[in-house]
Design a protein that fits this description.
- The chain has 391 residues and is mainly β.
- It has a domain of 119 residues.
- The chain is built from two helices and 28 strands.
- The strands form eight sheets. It has a four-stranded antiparallel β-sheet with strand order 1-28-27-26, with no helix packed on it. It has a four-stranded antiparallel β-sheet with strand order 2-3-4-5, with no helix packed on it. The protein has a four-stranded antiparallel β-sheet with strand order 6-7-8-9, with no helix packed on it.
- A hairpin with a 2-residue loop joins strand 16 and strand 17.
Length: 391
């Protein structure tokens, strides 16, 4: 049994959720605070922002309001609720992919923002207080559309799920400590991360579990079912202690692997009966893979019965998948160990796409540091806090 606490709150209106201390705050609707103990705290004065912001990321006492498929952002403090400064990104294909933004703490404790304030292909790190750009340089950036940024819990690594022409999604990782000393580290490919195993697998989401890059990828092939029979896949499987090639596109160790080797297993290595299949279109197969940045090798590769979508790390061994409804997944085995099927966390839009639409409810706020998330609809906010899973 997975230990967790849940609380549902009835609400009358909701536009966004962002964690601030032990509550979730609706910054796009003036600052209403929702507490996991069931209390709702209305601000004495509702603070509005005269722009069509539709998304929020937060860290500590600060947050960035932004238009997910637009060019404008606004850095604000949450206590008191006030404007710090405006942020911007390039107009170039901005309507086709998510605003690249992440907030985290630097090794010295200062708050920082990672974003692309110059060009779509140029990442920078700047301080929250004062706006000092710590990675200013003579830019020689690779031609990549940076997007879906995430930072390890200790602030050591930055990982992203960006894309390149023609178009194709990619995973990039960067050593933040190195970037602060050698800003040009952000201009290249960073640290090589296998793209799902071989160039046939396209990464569709990524997160960090400790110093492990966890990538959810998809491949389109024949009509074979990876959960039945002995279909084979071209992949780099887990090889403990064996460093990967410097180039993630190097297929020198890609081999054909039987589906039974990649199927979801329990702690003793026995295949798990998945029961009713998810609504997976014929010919589409999904892979969950973990790559150790410190050791330089793949630690697990598992076929999944359904799209994983956006992920939140929970400790060092689990992620919550938010596609359709929240699911707690053990990364090493691919096993779904808990579900919240009554919570609709929303579909995940792939990118790049010319069909992007502004985000709508439900809204999602993740707090991996405290192993909790909040899902908000127009009538309800639900808090879920997970217990210790690493013991």
């Amino acid at each position: 049994m997975v230990p967790f606490k849940r609380r549902d709150l009835d609400v009358t209106y909701l536009r966004s959720l962002a964690w601030h201390g032990d509550c979730a705050i609706d910054l796009l609707d003036g600052g209403t605070r929702y507490h996991p103990d069931g209390t709702i705290e209305e601000p004495r004065v509702h603070r509005g922002f005269a722009y069509k912001f539709d998304s929020v990321v937060s860290s500590g006492n600060h947050a960035v309001l932004h238009e997910k498929y637009g060019t404008k952002g606004l850095l604000v403090s949450m206590e008191p609720l006030d404007v710090v400064r405006e942020l911007n990104r390039s107009y170039y294909h901005a309507e086709d992919y998510a605003y690249p933004i992440a907030m985290f703490d630097l090794p010295d404790g200062r708050g920082a923002v990672a974003h692309c304030h110059k060009e779509y292909c140029s990442l920078d790190i700047e301080t929250v207080e004062g706006g000092e750009v710590l990675t200013e340089r003579t830019y020689n950036s690779s031609d990549i559309f940076h997007s879906k940024l995430d930072v390890s819990a200790d602030g050591r690594y930055l990982v992203e799920n960006g894309w390149v022409w023609h178009p194709w999604n990619v995973v990039q990782a960067y050593d933040i400590r190195r970037a602060l000393k050698e800003p040009g580290h952000l201009d290249g490919d960073g640290i090589a991360v296998p793209q799902g195993g071989s160039l046939g697998w396209e990464p569709e989401s990524v997160t960090m579990c400790g110093h492990h890059v966890v990538t959810a990828s998809v491949v389109e092939s024949g009509d074979g079912d990876p959960m039945e029979g002995e279909d084979e896949y071209e992949i780099k499987p887990a090889e403990k202690g064996i460093p990967e090639s410097v180039a993630p596109g190097d297929d020198s160790r890609v081999r054909r692997v039987a589906s039974s080797e990649l199927s979801i297993v329990d702690g003793q290595g026995n295949p798990i009966d998945l029961g009713v299949k998810a609504k997976r279109p014929p010919g589409l197969h999904y892979l969950l893979q973990a790559y150790d940045l410190d050791g330089g090798h793949i630690t697990s590769s598992r076929l999944m019965p359904d799209l994983v979508g956006r992920m939140m790390p929970v400790g060092s061994r689990h992620v919550v998948s938010f596609y359709d409804h929240p699911k707690l997944i053990e990364v090493a085995t691919g096993k779904v160990v808990a579900r919240w099927e009554d919570l609709f966390a929303g579909p995940e839009q792939g990118q790049p796409s010319a069909m992007m639409r502004p985000p709508t409810l439900p809204t999602l706020a993740c707090d991996p540091a405290h192993k909790r998330f909040a899902v908000g609809t127009e009538k309800r906010v639900t808090f879920v806090e997970l217990g210790d899973l690493d013991g």
